[in-house]
Amino acid sequence: MSSLKPVYKLYEWYISRNLKEENMPKHVAIIMDGNRRYSKIQGNVPVIDGHKRGVSTLEKVLDWCVDLGIEIVTAYAFSTENFNRSDKEVKGLMKLFQENFEGIASNKKIHKNEVRVKAVGNLELLPENVRQAIKLAEDSTASYNKRQVNIAIGYDGRLEIIDATKKIARDVKDGKINPEDIDEDLINKNLYTAGLEDPNLIIRTSGEERLSGFLLWQSSYSELYFCDSLWPELRKVDFLRALRSYQQRERRYGI
Questions:
Q1: Cα gap 73→71, rounded to integer Å
Q2: DSSP single-letter state for residue 82
Q3: What distance in Å separates the CA atoms of residue 134 and residue 125, rounded to the nearest whole number?
Q4: Residues contacting residue 148 through CB under 8 Å, at least 6 positions apart
Q5: Minimal CA–CA distance to 97: which of 132, 46, 139, 47?
Q6: CA-to-CA distance for 248 and 243, rounded, in angstroms?
Q7: Which of 93, 86, 140, 80 lies closest to 115 in space, CA to CA?
Q8: Residue among 224, 146, 151, 135 nearest 193 (CA)
Q9: What gap in Å lies between CA 35 and CA 206, rounded to an integer?
Q10: How far apart are CA 26 and CA 20, in angstroms?
Q11: What's the CA gap between 146 and 14, in Å, rounded?
Q12: What span, in angstroms and rounded, lies between the C-alpha atoms of 183 and 176?
């Protein structure tokens, strides 16, 4: 594999030189799929090792985004359905989330690049120690506005819309708003992603071609790109291909 590295570097250069800075997506969302399959391919190593490798891949992708001028990244880390996995895997993931959110507070690269970190999802579903770690990460980066990384955790697109509807219904019941006041803007303000621009591009790894409940409302006009690489094995050339595909498309709104 090492003998192919110069080839990939050359290919990265070839794709990069044709990417237009002015047509770079502002917001890229990623479904990080394939950590468990990666673990199995490695010879049935512990599943959590695949997830740890996935964290390393996300760190690399964030570096690429900084270099490319992509301002917002939203990564799908843990869905509500993932709570149905084995206790061992769920506990291992929660520990991993806690460690990584806590690490953000002292991460020199995060602070150097002025990256605001935010968790989006039904955070009440998470253990208290994870919620505290999220608060630490969010508080330590709250003053930044150059770049933003959103971690979708305890997230489900349908649940998000249901929760937003409940909030609006309560406000109608309390007389704070009238039913006629309900529009797209009001719904946007009540989503987990309130205040966040919709993604221009959504990338999913591992060869699966579905959104799996990710950003269902926000993805109405997003461009979709499906990549065969498992998330832990994602290469920069794979990411650049996604951006090239995005820039080659004629974006339309409606049918």
A1: 7
A2: G
A3: 13
A4: 71, 72, 73, 115, 116, 117, 118, 196
A5: 132
A6: 9
A7: 140
A8: 151
A9: 9
A10: 13
A11: 28
A12: 15
Between CA 129 and CA 99 the distance in angstroms is 10
What's the mean pLDDT when you consider all of the chain? 95
Q: Measured between alpha carbons, how far is 28 from 224 in angstroms, rounded to an integer?
A: 10
Residue 4, pLDDT score? 60
Domain 2-8+19-246: give its CATH architecture: 3-Layer(aba) Sandwich (3.40)
For the record, the structure tokens of 212 come out as 């799996």
Compute CA distances 110 → 20, 133, 207, 236, whole Å. Answer: 26, 16, 30, 20
Choosing from 82, 113, 122, 188, the catalytic residue is: 82
- Of the candidates 100, 95, 112, 108, the one whose C-alpha atom is nearest the C-alpha of residue 136 is 100
Q: Is 113 helix (H, G, I), strand (E, B) or coil?
A: coil
User: Could you tell me the residue ranges of all domains in the chain?
Assistant: 2-8+19-246
**Burial of 54 by CB count in 10 Å (0-12 exposed, 13-18 middle, 19+ buried)?**
buried
Q: What is the pLDDT of residues 185-223, one digit of tens each?
A: 999 999 999 999 999 999 999 999 999 999 999 999 999
Tens-place pLDDT, residues 108-117: 999 999 999 9
Active site residue 87: no
Number of C-beta neighbours around residue 16 at 10 A? 15
Residue 254: the pLDDT is 62
Is 82 considered catalytic here?
yes
Per-residue DSSP letter, 106:
T
Distance (Å, whole) CA 97 – CA 52 = 10
Q: Which of 33, 107, 150, 200 is catalytic?
A: 33
Beta carbons of 145 and 116 less than 8 angstroms apart:
yes
Instruction: Identify the pLDDT of residue 2.
Output: 53
